[in-house]
Amino acid sequence: MAVTKAASLADDLVQRFEEQIETGGMPVGSRFPTEKEITETFGVSRTVVREAYSRLSARGLLVSRRGSGAYVPDGAQYRAFQVTADEIGEIDDVLKLLEMRMGFEVEMADLAARRRTEADLVELRRTVAAMEESRDVDASVAADAAFHAAIARATGNSHFLRFTQFLGVRLVPSRRLYLQGDDPVRHQRYAHTINRDHVAIYTAIEAGDAAGARRAARRHIQKSIQRYRTLKESGGDAPSR
Fold it and tell me: How deeply is 194 buried, as exposed, middle or buried, from its count of CB atoms within 10 A (0-12, 13-18, 19+)?
């Protein structure tokens, strides 16, 4: 997916202001520079400034006051962690998300193996079966996300489930990004590859094997990372949305 120069410049502004807010350089109540001040200081267009401010507003980091300007709102430093759809459009973005997931998934599988109930195992088996039977991208993505949510639920720790639900399908790297098309045969083969990993994780959880669940979860993420690195090296990229 090609990134326009304007979008890239807006990204730079957003990152600059996010860092200032998070480090206390712009505390609550601070006034953002005007569009004119930004264009003169950074040499960007008003369109770029408006795009950056729109993104900051969407992330809860900027509030506009009619006739007064834009300010840092209360609680901006403590906003919820976010991974937006726009932030996982490229292979490098997916790799960053997978690296973050590594520790999270491993610990989650460990706790699930120690605490799972029969109801949890029933739900895990249902998601594995749904993945096996999937015949299109959307069905496999839904089954994949449901599998990880079922593991989170099996931990007995509501925070794992809430975080997993918050990320939603962003927890599952885009099948369209990897598949580069809608070939049903290729899709089914890929879904079965993913599901073998799911079965290994499920088997360890069912057996109450915490160490085995950790190993299976780690292998699952490592293999995903390797697939995307290989895709990147081959020159693959995200399709235009």
Answer: buried
Q: What is the pTM of this model?
A: 0.64
Per residue in 176-191, pLDDT (tens digit) is 555 445 567 777 787 8
Widest CA span of the chain, in angstroms? 64
Read off φ and ψ for residue 61, nearest 5 degrees: -105, -5
Task: Tell me the sheet residues that pair with 69.
Answer: 65
**How many C-beta atoms surround the C-beta of residue 51 within 10 A?**
19
Q: How far is CA 142 from CA 15, 101, 157, in A?
A: 32, 18, 22
C-alpha to C-alpha distance for 15 and 195, rounded to whole angstroms: 37
Q: State which CATH number among 3.30.428.10, 3.10.20.600, 1.20.120.530, 3.40.50.170 fits the domain covering 85-233.
A: 1.20.120.530
